[in-house]
Fold these 3 entries.
Entry 1:
Amino acid sequence: MRDLLIMVVVLTVLSAFSGGLLSGLRNATAARIEVQQLKFVKGPAIKKILQGVSNDPIADRFSLKDGDMVRKFFVGKFDGKANTVVLESSGKGYGGDVGLMVAVNMDDDTIVGAGVTTHSETPGLGAMAKDNPAFVSQFKGLPIAEMFKVTNDGGKVNAMSGATITSRAVCAAATQTGSIYQKLKPQLSEKLKEFNK
Amino acid sequence: MLSLSAVLFMLALGATCGAVLSAASKIFYVYEDPRVGIVEGYTAGANCGGCGYAGCAAAAVAVVAGEAPPSVCIVAGPEATANIAGVMGLDPGTAESLLSYNTCTGGDRAAEKYVYMGIKSCQALATLHGGQRFCPVGCLGFGDCVKACAFDAIKIGAHGYPVVNEMKCVGCGACEKVCPKDIMEIKTMSQRLLHLNQYDDRIAPCQQTCPAEIDIPKYVYQTKIGDYEGAVNTIRERNPLMLACGRVCPHPCEDKCRRGIEDEPVSINQLKRFVADYEMNSGKRLPISVAPSTGKKIAVVGGGPAGLSCAYFLRRLGHDVTIFDAMPKLGGMIRYGIPEYRLPKDVLAWEIDGILNLGVEHKPNVALGRDFDIGALIASGYDAVFLGIGAWKDYTLGVEGENLQGCYTGINFLTNFAVWQQERPHEQRPFIGKKCVVIGGGNTAIDCVRTLVRLGADEVTIVYRRTRKEMPANEVEIVAAEHEGINFTFLAAPTQVIGDEAGNVTQLEYLKMELGEPDASGRRRPVPIEGSETVIDTDMLITAIGQGPDVFFKDESKRLDEDLKLTRWNTIDSEDEIALQSSIPYIFSGGDAATGADLVVSAIGAGRRAARSIHFYLANEDITPPSKTLFRNNIPVSIFESVSGITQLPRTKMPELPVDERIKSFVEADLVITEDEALYESSRCLECCLICYNKDVA
Amino acid sequence: MAKTLTQEFTKGLWEEIAPFRLVLGLCPVLGVTTTIENGIGMGLATTFVLVFSNILIASLRNIIPSKVRIACFIIIIATFVVVTELLMQAFAYTLFLKLGVFIPLIVVNCIVLGRAEAFASKNDLLPSIADGLGIGIGFTLSLAALGAVRELFGANNLTIWTTPNSVIGIQEVFGTNFEPFTFMVQAPGAFVCLGLMLCLMNLMGSK
Amino acid sequence: MGYMEIIIGGIFVNNILLAQFLGNCPFLGTSKKMETAVGMAMAVVFVLVLAGVITWVLYAFFLVPYKLVYMRTIAFILVIASLVQFVEMFLKKSIPALYAGLGIFLPLITTNCAVFGACILNVDKELNFMKTLVQSFAYAVGFGLALILFAGVRERIILARVPKPLQDTSIGLVTAGILSLTFYAFKGMI
């Protein structure tokens, strides 16, 4: 019985110790990991849609509450002035959610650029959304308030051939981005002002 | 800052897992061999499966079961191997070094009958054709074992059979696994000592016939290549009394010698005697290995060939053995029954010393039933008893006048004389008549007459109720007796012993016989001729018509009397004549005590079989011999009608002392052959196994 | 006969080089070696876990009850695996993404547990470090070698390290006209390639 | 993703042994004999399904709510190891017949990356409970299928004349490569 007790105690103490160690390390590295994740997951897309930006949008980021969710926003400065905000949303695609990053110029509410972040579409077809700049560049310059639809559904966006579902998902994501933007616009401009200080 | 939830979570998880497992190990406790756990502890615990077993526990089970070598774990180092071997060392047998042996010595080899898509592999042939050669068990000779050996220890020898280099062999068992015919054997010494001939063994007719199951072709081959020590070791795996056997064995093996079909058989026994004498005369004893001690004690009652053999094998298997013997010195019938001129007693003593040197204890001058009983043995801590009490009680004629002065029985006479000769030669010599008559045709009768001749009897006659052809005595003995001037009266059945007033024997009356129809034993039954009564003058009459065990000890103990079953010949009964376990489980028997008077070599074989049974009995294992055990039989396919291609080569004659010289003394009459003769004789051996391929069978 | 620290270290580099000699720890060997970079990264991660778990086990070996030692070793190893995971995410995120599920799988790599049990639990601190380092580097070298062969023929590249802005290594080794033998970077190629390298090792070893 | 997709994907397309490289040590170790391979395959099916379910529960009800997802490696291995040991003890006592068949393979599974890896993959994909169950089963069956096929091939390799340096593991790996290539043909199924 004593043996068993020692066994249990050793196991327990060891796992508790390990739990402590790990949570400590986790706390210490959490901030850096977040930056890394943003940099490598969102970074490339943001860089692409915010061409000519003068700051580091990953570093200049803020969070806002949208109902229950916390959303992340990235700030783009052009010519030293923070006038562009990047936000993300998603639409339902063929093999899961398609994430879309949209940069909006707050001065005139038009889309500066858009980029697909995550997707699990069939390689070669839907995946073109990420690799094919021609498709997403259609969004450039369009007003954010618009309902985005592919031409088949009576919209303006030309669907990628053979990947209608993915194209629709991207459009849906863009439309959703618009609604989030509209909803949070006051807070967003508040935040942007802070970056201009 | 530490996150409390993480610590608490891991704490709870660790505690739960620990507690559940602890509880489970109590609740679901199942007994297993404790060595499994220990062995598993020494393995790396990585459960990598690299050893081919499903995890460390499975490997440990395999090690304990003896299926895997201690070196099974490929992750843990040699230290672990040593530790595992240490754990397993508790078990006699498995800690002994394992060596590979090629058990197929082949015979007439043939070219492959089929070649299947160029595959030259034993495994392939065995799989595809079930073995394309005629021999159902023999070596296919494509050397899968050679390929399997990672230690470069196996080569295909000049005869096309694998030859194992014992220096390189580590006993890994790779060859054994790969051989489709079970020819490569990885066995410990104990396993080899315990092996009984099997129907599917690859053994030559001589080895099948030898009651002691000696690997005759192997030692003959070893003799041929000059490896006399190897030959001695080979014989010693089956026969601890090779000096004695080399002199007195009637060599039934030679009757089955395949060379004997077309030529004279190989003189196997002379070769045995040659190598046995070689060792004795070399001035040193070859070391005999003994398994680690098991702590079991066995009492061997009777120090004759059966008892000595049983004690020898039990000792080598790691048990403690004590021999209780009624006579002053060990040897039993071969000391007190076989005369000096056939087996010099200093030779016997040298041989018996070798057995005692292994650590066998000897208690002389104590007789079962007179000085101790079996209950006392068990009470003093013996775990099993072997009864090798021999057959020392002569049968009597059952005719009138048998107890007159001057009448003796064979064993009685020989023993009395031997005791006088060996123990108290300064005392008066036992009485010897002038005109001696010995009744009987067996070896005892011949021993009596040849002894009498040497003691100076004027006229010695053998009276036997059948003809010379039916005499059970060894042919060489009969021939020697004839040379030594013994009279033979055949077809004579004693009817009456006639004495004078003083009660001394004067005449033997017998009835002449003629041969009638053959009886159950195949010998023609002698039928008395009416009115043919004849008398022969004698002053000393010895009856040597057979003997049986003296079981007087049985009356001394109620338990024995009730429970120890005897046969109607007063021999100790055992349900299985190979297992030799008596009706009392811890009592085993063998030799003449179990079979009635028989050959020395049979007693030696029985001693080993009993030792095997005792070994398994003490280990709580099944003592029943394997179902394919070969006993007093031959493998049918191995017995040939004819053998082709034999050039006649004369058999080596046994050197003997000249007759006029030898009848004057008890100096050994039969001599050993020379080294050149031994080399010549061993090269006459056909080295037969089972034949590999019968050219006549398509 | 006790080995010197150097011997403990060097034995892992050739004599007992784990994936080839013992054929252990094959999952990461096969799974991640599409490039040299992945191989080195995985190898270093494993080395890290090996060395630190060896350190901890060697220092705690007298406290751990033998009956639960395997469980304790697993906890210790798992802890360091999570540490590796966190550190990699923080400092080498791209590599972390590429190695994916194989990082947590270090926990069940038999080499790590095997060394813990066969060496660290029986030896002092310093030899255990040397052993962990040696085996780990041997493992890394094996992975890098396999990665090199597969990447060279499968992708026509030799990538040693990728930074966000540049790639250290040689691209287009055989020139742009070479059609990469993509079989090599895919699953079947991993098996075949390792099998052939093992054969090569046997050839060299038998001399 | 439908269940059919999960099953076909798990068994053929993403075969855990031949496409995901998980569980290779026992794959090479226990495939020398058909008997062992079958035993191992059964044991993996048994344990993988059990482990998949338990780790899912652990993940969904403890790790996610308490924000301890980063500890999943250590938590999973602890739970799987304990589970396997528990099952082993339970079988030994309660169902000796089953233990005789599977028992000796169980400890091997503790450190089988196939089991652990499959659990990690399951939670990575954020499958729901039923899908986890099906996916685990499919992975396990895929493992068993590959192992048994491979054992069958390996038993036959004995008959082949393999050059000495290629013998044993080396030819085993090349064979596994060819087997993996055949599984590649399933790629188009999904």
Note: Strands of chain C lie at 158-162, 167-170.
Entry 2:
Amino acid sequence: MKIRTWLSLSSIALLLSLSSIVKAEWGVNMTEGVTEISQSIYDLHMLIFWICVGIGVVVFGVMFYVMFKHRKSKGAVAAQFDESVTLEWLWTVIPTIILIAMAVPATKTLVEMYDASDAQVDIKITGYQWKWQYDYLGEDVSFFSNLSTSRDAVYNKEEKGENYLLEVDKEVVIPTGQKVRFLITSNDVIHAWWVPEFAVKKDAIPGYVNESWVNVPVGQEGVYRGQCAELCGVDHGFMPIVVRAVSQSDYATWLDEQRAEKEAAALAALGDYSFDELMTTGAEVYAGRCAACHGQNGEGMGSMFPPMVGSDIVLNDVDKHIDILINGVAGSAMQSFAEQLTDVEIAAVITYERNAWGNDTGDIVTPRDIIDARQ
Amino acid sequence: MSSKPNVAKSAIKHLFVALAMFGFGFALVPLYDVFCEITGLNGKVTGTVEKVDYTVDTSRTVTVQLLASKNAEMPWRFMALQEQIDLHPGEWKQIGFWASNTTASDMVSQAVPSITPARAAEYVQKTECFCFQQQPLAAGESKQMNMVFTISPELPEDIQTVSMVYTLFDSTEFADPETVAKLN
Amino acid sequence: MTTTTAAHDDHGHHGPAKGIMRWILTTNHKDIGTMYLWFSFIMLLTGGVMALIIRAELFQPGMQLIEPEFFNQMTTMHGLIMVFGAIMPAFVGLANWMVPMMVGAPDMALPRMNNLSFWILPFAFGMLLLTLFSEAGAPNFGWTFYAPLSTTYAPSSVTYFIFGVHLMGISSIMGAINIVATILNMRAPGMTYMKMPLFVWTWFITAYLLIAVMPVLAGVVTMMLMDIHFGTSFFNAAGGGDPVLFQHLFWFFGHPEVYIMILPAFGIVSHIIPTFSRKPLFGYSSMVYATASIAFLSFIVWAHHMFTVGLPLVTELFFMYATMVIAIPTGVKVFNWVSTMFQGSLTFETPMLFAIAFVILFTIGGFSGLMLAIAPADFQYHDTYFVVAHFHYVLVPGALFAIIAGVYFWLPKWCGNYYDEFLGKLHFWLSFIGVNITFFPMHFIGLAGMPRRIPDYALQFADFNAVASVGAFIFGFSQLLFLYIVIKTIRSGKQATPEVWEGADGLEWTLPSPAPYHSFSEPPQVK
Amino acid sequence: MQRQNIGLGLWKFLQSVIAALVGVQSQNKRQQDFAGDNLLRIIGISLVAAVVLILVILMMVNMALPDPS
């Protein structure tokens, strides 16, 4: 008997001590977040948590008391009562009261969360298989945001950075002190856009638009990271979200920069490029966006992703090659990159694919070819 | 002793309950659409509505955002000619969307509307919308598709912005005969 | 569970056939129960290996062992095999063994259908497991198989998954009809509804849940089949369908399903605790009414699995309140167990240890369930490891501990020998510690923000994931000890008395141990 | 022992159905519930009570909602 009592005592102590760790910011508890909504959710979470701990202590306390006091080996003789309606009514009425006490603040918070009216900024978020697209309504700013952690880091060939798997090539910038409304939808399967510090999580469903909102208070400028929270296929764990909250003035300058960048890219497409410039840019674009499926050296992967090396289209049919990049291949995993890459990048990656790994066709594809093909 | 006849009877009875529940599973599909209609879930707004001359409520303006979105299977280019327009509740407006079939084969598309906030869905009235039927486009062709709509004045006060997203799907395999006829 | 000699009251009936044909052609509820239990144990180990692969990959950040594609297949198959292959058949096996003996019936009402509903299962799971070796790979869309990931974007093996689910559903419906027919028609005279043991009551209500929702699941997968192959568009928006319709249909089946997996466990624990407290069950009729109330309420709460899908505010509030109402009858059950123990005369053999661990750890799972019911808070919990911790607490120390407790409790009656008490306790403590080390840290990494079903994670989740993985291996291998204990008991345990346990009462304990091949040919007299 | 049919009034059944919803019931009340032919009546009343429960929750929801215009 002795060992058992000691063992059960220690395991319960372990459980209770673990729950006291919850207090310490040891990455064990929900984030309080930076917005009013996330704070009230955190308060609800802690309220229901402590209620459960309270009930747990009472119920388990009685159980352990009984396990020690009423043991047969201590001569306990079993009483034969098996019913007491008053006691039973008691332990239904009390939980009902507790639940009603919980329902009221929960309803208030939920109603606030559903009110996305009079927002100053509207961003349409579209989930793709394994990346996010952001359109700033009325600002003519639109871009894709991809995971920027390298494949080598994932496969332990490289050091993992501090924001491993939570870093992207283009961050979403939003102003603080303003209500930012998100219109969330999806291009293919169901995803879910989730940033813990904002307590914003909404499913992105094809054919649906879901709205949610955040109002980062002034003074809380900073970077907030989140991930896709609905199974969406192979790289479900590799499509993070990085939101940078900046002051309203920085936000305005950022918007201007994005539009300027867009014009520069359009202008750049009219310039002409040397073979080497296209090859270097092409190598970068290929490593970042195409290697995941077509292989580091263009060897392809199984029957799903065709190889680049010695491929008939790559070597002889440049128009088909450009068409695939711009329109994608319907019914396959090959997406259209028309909106994801600039004309220069598309021209560069095609030139690279046509001249790398022994494919050396020797000619180059110019951004202007891409512009003509886009018409 | 085990009474054989009763056993068979209750087994058959419960088998029918199981079959009924199988049917109930399928009956939930139309039930779901009815339920969406009532609560305006996902902006499943009623079909064509005859033109009602509301008394235009000029004291209020509602911002209507019109967004074009595509499904992965849909290679067409599809965009709204006007992303945002302001209108007084009760005022009828016509909006154009532009679609062009950049592929080398004839295709049929289906636009699926979705309105948010969901509470606003029942106040959006449409007399004509390209999303009511399938839209065919021959290879390389492009065209403007129109929609005539208004927001009824009974729209709740606290709603100032209504977003209507049209997601274009490739429904060539679901094309109904007369749409295909229009193609060739 | 080979029964050796025919018992004395076995006047002239033929004993079991010899050799393999005994098991293939058997219509005896004891043999079929045994087959269900062995099948479910094999599935537990298969699903367990998959869990160990998942936990081994998640031991460290970075991809060390397997590819993300295979990881998704492992999570999907782990879920399917544990839910449909380990937990449900184990309960059906316990029901096959015990329900006829508890109500004083000679056998199940439809013995041949009983055989058929077992023998469908190995083929259903054979087909499901063979997809692992197909070129397209096993299903990778999660055991909840949401559309369009499971329809338009699914690997071609999805059709085998659909037929597998069809077969499992048919097997469960036939099993449920069999149990209902047995309970309705073949109770011994005097065994009125309100004298039926609680295990029989919980299975009676679970059978009705099965009959009501398994057909809906069969309907959902049939709609998927028609979407994938026959050009309909139930869930494909391109043809007028709706992916959210799938989630409503699936969870309308899904929530009663999770109660199907826990109500029989309530029944088992409600037998064990009174026996080892030497005290009648506290509030027997409350327990029966609470089970019925839970069964009914489980039909109107399904959308609490979909709080972030974009339901209208009215719907979201309705399902939050309805989910809260379920907490009350569940609470009643836990309080009744504790009151049964109160002022009892307790001894702690292995079944009692597992039953007490069930009450404590299931209640922790119940509490995290209550936290998840708070809709606004669910926006932070949904699809994170907090949910994984919740449902593993109610399923592993919940359903699985109750099944193991049931096996330890009735094994002497099945095979006539006592199990080795020390080994039993060793198995308990290894499982108890393993379960908590595995699943308690998951509460923390879920709250800290780690989403579900991801093969690799950011660095801040690393240390608790390592702890969970270690716990998983402790818990996993301690089930092999359980296999050794069961085999050792069947072969050479100490001879068991008919009552087996001092505080046990019920028709099943009036039979000799091991229970004769044909029991209660003449219905017993129920006082 | 022969239990004469106590001819429970509808109200008695309703009480026991509500008690059942919460999962609390005393031994003797239960005997009355399960006396012979009452089963059909109980199922009938519990179905009605089920619909009433759903409506009650819906009513609470509308009460909790900010009054839409």
Note: The interface with chain D takes residues 192-194, 283-294, 296, 300, 313-314, 317-318, 321-322, 325, 328-329, 332-333 of chain C (CB under 8 Å).
Entry 3:
Amino acid sequence: MIKASVEPWIEAPLQQFVDDAGVVLALLLHPSGQVMGQYGFTRAMDVMSACALAAAIHLSSSELGMQLEGKPFTGLHHAGKDRQVFIAETETRRGPYILLTVFDGESSLGLVRMFFDEFRVNLANAAPVPVPAPHPMLNENFERELNRNLAVLFGRA
Amino acid sequence: MSSPFTAILDAFSRQRGVQASLAVSARDGIAIESNLQIGQDGTRVAALAASLYAKARKAATAAGLGSTGFLQLEAEAGRLCMLGGDDVILVVVGDPQANVGLIRMELIRAAEALA
Amino acid sequence: MPDVVRLWSDELARDPSSLVFLPLAETLRVRGQLEMARKVALRGIERHPTNADAHDQLARIHADAGAFQQALDEWTTVLRLVPSHVGAIKGMAFVRFQQGDRDEAERLLIAAQDLEVGDAGITAAITAVRRPGASTPASTAQVGQDPEPGTVFSDLLRDDQMAILLDTEGLVLAGTNTGNDGRDVAAAMGAALSGVSDEAHRTTKHLQIGGWRAIVFETESAIVSIAPAPADGRAAGGVLVLSAPPATALGMLRRLLDRCVERAGQWLAGTMS
Amino acid sequence: MSLVNYQTREITSKIVYYGPGRSGKTTNLHTIYSQVPDDRKGKMVSLATQTDRTLFFDFLPLDLGSISGFTTRFQLYTVPGQVYYHATRKLVLQGADGVVFVADSQARQLQENIESFQDLHQNLSEQGVEPRGIPLVLQYNKQDLPPDLILTTKELSDAINFRGVPEFPADALHGPGVFETLRGISELVLKRLSAGASR
């Protein structure tokens, strides 16, 4: 189980949503498909795939909403046999984010929607004013490290 | 336009101390129809009541007690009464002075009528 | 039931800032592993120095270990952080009682009662400290040893009624529940039903209708009623479950539930006569 | 928008393989996927049509290991090349930290290459990204085809690479050039991130 967030202010609202709504997985992502925070996944690679797909689903359903209704659909619910998925957008002063959550019989769509409404407020309140992020100081040899890593990755080392 | 629930919910609302009555989807926890006094949040009541009822049903089954009927949650400033099946749960929100006996009888009668 | 100590320890190792140290320390305390409990609580406090419950937890561990002055210091810290922390006031009362200062213990218990009106456990404790010649229990872990846990509710119940007191993990502390085949099914029933109280707590919290007092639900073979356990001692966060035949009048069952909660409070406080 | 998690010291960057239909974008990802050990890659996700043409995108998460003490991961995306998937291309391009433009070296595809390259610039501009600022490399794919069917690297460079960005001849189907292209874009993305010029 991984509980992680890219920025600390995301952790508390996301954890509270998970606790309150009793969901199995929760993933907060940037509309570009980058993971911002997550609960319940075990592999970082799975998180990235889920983010890419969730961003795609959200973006395409937004577009579909634009074409059908003249405004984007803001939430999506898919009910599987045992598990259900809910994807919706939330706005903060840091910009929009997308929540993907998976739940089973321990929760319900009603609970998820209700606690998502609280999550939106909590996340918006927690979001600090955006400041230019410090850039990572990669050392002078990073190109050599990159080349070595890529060579290992491709079996050329 | 009235649904099968309209008359049932209206009857609850006429009872003393009743602040809300709802027909809720048991699977989703979403209100199908509701009769709410000002200040009552039907979305919340529906989601939370359905979840509580589902939990009690599961617990009763796990404890070997069989199927679940009437349920009452009593709190300092109000009470929730409910009764339902696999599809629909009828939920009544009352203040502490509400007559639980009457609500219970009415819920049982309504559930029989819906069945 | 999985070994919660291992699960929580793993969780804490993965995420040292997790609040899971609170139930972990509490479980270790209840199991009598006081030194380990103390270390876990201390490490938690290092990360969460303003968390009142963390200081409360450490205080209870000190109290169990007989380190009364350290316990009082921690509870004083709790009250600085949260002046209305009932658990801390009750804990301090317990220590004062241990030290033989009955007046101070009673004063503190009355203060706790003002904050938590209707708490049967506090009422029982006040009665206990006022009783002449009341013996002092040796530690918070040792209160309520008498009578036998299985018979705590016996004289209140008819043969077809059953009551059990469960701790926060759904483990049976007192009472018995016998199945149709005559076996004690209390543990299984406790594990199944204790989760309902979490749901009740969530419901009342989010509907803002105050704390929950009781759940009553009718099933094919019984009417089950559940109430919060007395808030102090080992039962804190647990529930009392009472079951009766389906034909039982709800009003009568409700009153019986109250009496059982009161009895549980007396038993936990070690003041059952 | 590269994400940098200072707590766990992780960098995650998004790289989009862009180019005209059938130029070999998906093939690049397949080749990378086939050469990288399982523990360093995620599942390759392909949202494709029945005829195996990319419908929405292909996606491959890749773990590059530790660079300057940061666990570095790349998310590789492709866009659908066909002209009529314009809206989807725009969506996938959102938040890209670097772009690999995969050109089809066949002489008869030159016009498609040029139009797709213009489309890339237009889409970046519409998203508020300065096309000249974003890390970009060019890959001239299908260099294994008979010489009379393809343009040389020099000819393609003259036609497309007016910015003078790094360029790599490649045969994505069999592997040559794929690794070098990925290395080229990785260097640019990390260099830009380190210089603090990331959006």
Note: The longest strand of chain A covers residues 84-92.
